[in-house]
Amino acid sequence: MAENDLLDLDMPLDSENEYRPAMKPDAPNGDVPSESRPVGHERLARLEPPPRCVPLLARLTMRLGGGTLGMFGWVFFGFSMIFIWAFAPNIDYTSWTKTWTPAKGEIVALSKTNMSVGGGDHREGTPVYEYVIRHTTPAGKVIRQASYRTGAPAKLRKGYDTALQNGKDEYVPPKPIPTGIERSGDEIRIAGGRTAMMGVELCFVFLFPVVGLGLILGAAWRGPKRIRLLRDGIAASATLKSKEATSTRVNNCTVYKYTFEFTSRDGTAHRVTAKTYRTNTLGDEAFEPVLYDPYFPNEAVLLDALPMKIRLDEMGRLRVPSYKIGGALLPLAVLGGHGLYALHHFGLL
Prior knowledge:
Elements: E1 7-8, H1 42-45, H2 56-63, H3 68-87, E2 101-117, E3 126-136, E4 142-150, H4 154-165, E5 177-184, E6 187-190, H5 207-220, H6 223-232, E7 234-250, E8 253-263, E9 269-276, E10 288-292, E11 300-302, E12 311-312, E13 318-319, H7 326-345
Helix pairs in contact: 2-6, 3-5, 3-7
């Protein structure tokens, strides 16, 4: 079916079609006769009765946390995971939990890592150096390990620079250089150093993907309810009761809280709320389409507040325009990209 054959649920109504009475038999159990109640919204009058088929693209978008908040969460999560892969393997997680005792050792090699500490826009940070050290225990056991420390003595830096000029990326002193070390069992490190490139204080980078994941979950937890209401919800028309500015801003635009009221098929009034910064999507019509749970009418969703544009074809079936694939493609791209890198990183691919 061509895209132009779809009825856009966001298009304005003709004034002569604001109401379309429902011609159905009297409802059982004392319900108000349906012909005395308007279905309300012309668009909903064309909607097929439940259970409806919810398009796969709509289900994916809502389950994966579609919408402005969810998409921002996926972008934030995706970018922050890049830093996790870069820094997490190079953090010294355990040294602070161990007891280290001073000992004597020797520096047998020195090289500069690609990590640095400090620095800014106009100055370079202090490089982190890898020290290969050797220690002989009282029992005669020789332990040789790499440890890391920010900066290096001038003599060692000069030796490393000379080795670099000679095409070598590691400086090996003519003879081992005595140095103070620290020992914990069979593990050793340069005095004042660590067993990995970066200290445990860098663990703050884990906060960023957690924030992104929180935004995603905050948007995704409504997904199953929205899908259920699209499939089984009863159609009604809602009128705007209030519009309040919140303290939240998105893209430098104020987020508003909208409260709508609708009448369920048993004649009782119920309210449904939605928040958005796109003020042209809600409250721009006299009546907004809503789908509610017939058994729990307080559970309702405004169609124009969904994280994707819903359209109807000529048979009244739900459709999502193909150009709205981004709502599902972005989460799948983030999960797929980082999932493949994780398999590669851990040697499973």
